[in-house]
Fold:
Amino acid sequence: MQGVGFRPYVNRLALALGLGGWVANSSDGVTVDIEGTDVAVEDFLRRLTTQLPPLARLDRLHTQELALAGYTVFTIHPSTSTDAPTALVLPDVATCDDCLNEISNPSDRRYRYPFTNCTNCGPRFSILETLPYDRANTTMRLFVMCDYCRAEYEMPADRRFHAQPNACPECGPQLALQDSIGTNLAHRDHALRAAAEALRNGKIVALKGLGGFQLLVDARNDTAVGELRRRKGRPHKPFAVMVASLAHAETVCYVSALEQELLASPQAPIVLLRRGVHPDRPHPAKTRSAIADVVAPDNPLLGVMLPYTPLHHLLLRELEFPIVITSGNLSGEPMAIDEHDALKRLRGIADLFLVHNRPVACALDDSVVRVIAGRAMMLRRARGYAPLPVALKQRLPSLLALGGHLKSAIATTVGSQVMIGPHVGDLDTTPARKAFHGAMHRLRGLHAVQPVAIVCDQHPDYYSSHVARSSGTKVITVQHHVAHIAACMADNGIEGPVLGVAWDGTGYGNDGTIWGGEFITVDGVSTRRVAHLRPFALAGGEKAVTEPRRAAIGVLYELFGESAFGGTTLEALRSFSAAERKVLVRMLARNLNAPRTSSMGRLFDAVASLTGLVQRSSFQGQAAMALEFALDEHPPQVQYHIELQSRDDDAQGALILDWRPMLQALLADIVRGAPTSHVAAAFHNALVEALVDVAQRFGNTRVVLSGGCFQNRYLTERAIDRLRHAGFEPYWHQHVPPNDGGLALGQAMWAARLLEAGVA
Ligand code: ZN
Ligand code: ZN
Ligand code: FE
Structure:
């Protein structure tokens, strides 16, 4: 891996052992030529693998004996770029303790310098323009090192030896504070202090962070956070907060040992934590009230992260209170990365802009993880993780996988590795599509990929499918839920046969309808849809995605036909006018603009609407989240019943999960006024029992859980638990998200499998 101080480490080791020779970065990795006594050479090889620098990871070590060259010294060669670049690109790394000490020390020359870094920390992927990783190939090429920095850079014993983004207040990037028309108001430390002052006064500040612009606001200030929601067009979706330290995180949330480790890791992701404070933990009264409710409305969880650049550290120290940090974009668009773009797009949102002159090479959102079943599960994979690969067991043909439409992320294969680009977002808007092309060119460029095929979803109208078809390269399509299951298999390093459970919102099915409550067996390249949710109609088609009440109408119609629309006891029905209800009945009765779906996400929507939790949603997954959050901490052991029906008339012979008995009981509970927590528990538990029932009908020991529904902690943990109890081996996501952000990995893995079998 490049940029972790590996060459300096090799150099020090060789010098300590009296070996001659050289070390060089190449696009293939690192090459070392050493010469010396047998004992010293053996010692070198042993220590090379056991005493690696903190961020280094040795994937493979090849050794070869060469003729003596008579080296008298050991040298570090400059990088070569003759081979195809296949070396790993290191993600950005959170500020290390040594650098933190320097910016805190008034007598250090980097005191309060926001761009301090070293070989153990700092920007990498976000400044990288091309491989190999040398300063000239990063956006730091614009800055000429001063004599001090140059000396550090060239001194093998120094912590900054060959630290490519090395900089100091004399020679490196600097801050400026601008108003919304781009006029400079302050520079350097004054800019930082003035921005802090503005935040203290409830202003919204756009900060040029590591991977692009972020919007900041005082997380305690209801009015200011509400104003940010209004300006950004983001009424409900939870915001994440940044707190100064682990200790501070513990004053607002429960933090387990694993969650602490994740928060303080070099990747420094947003970790979803449960709000509240341990009763036996003393908490400072002044920070207790810290987080305004409007930061994450009706949400028992809070996304929390720690500062991960010196700039964030300095700002948080200045403020002494937590801040909301959210991507600098309009809802649905990618984040702005340069000042010009930011001023144009964020003018109506931010009051002030805290900028600097180090260009961002690639937009990188903050990554999001959640601990599920005792392990970290990636929910959004970007800063700190991208573009690290998931390694498969076999060598793969060169492929470019374009992912889906929502939560877009692309992947490319190099050798046996699947390099996964950062989260781009939904591909609905022109700026998002532009960012998608940018990400594609960047990933291809970095790894010099000449794909033999481009892989995309089977959906004919996804933007990514259009891009694939117009590429002029061979196209391989992979069914959406097969890709989900393949992604989870690749994520867990398993080959199959498996029973795949893919539960999500929307995926194009083999029969052209919308799937999403799927059970698919996978064996080699053969797949069979062995069971699925009983389909129901979505009146208004696409509109149903943002209106859970339409899914509710759909299931009611399945149960009661037109008579379902007589009463108005249910909020789902009341929320439509009489005239609207009339139109809906007609749509459903005549099958007009009422596509049928087997989507589990839409079933969650229906239940969230029937229980009165959400009628219209403003972000993906809102209804499903509301149902999960409606659960008590220890939900009661109650459950509705889902009937498994074998359908002889179904050509595929798939089992149907008939949810009608469940819905009958659920409606009866609602009518008798049962608490929502009870209904939610009985619903979740019914789904898990049906899942185990289906697993028992098929002979696969391995059961793979994928799709956005498995971001639900209760659902996933209970499924794992019940499956294990019944003798199965459950697998779930860790390194890539269960949502559509993980599709590209599955597409690449599956396409490689098809090519290998000669069926693509
Ligand atoms: Zn450092
Ligand atoms: Zn300098
Ligand atoms: Fe999906």
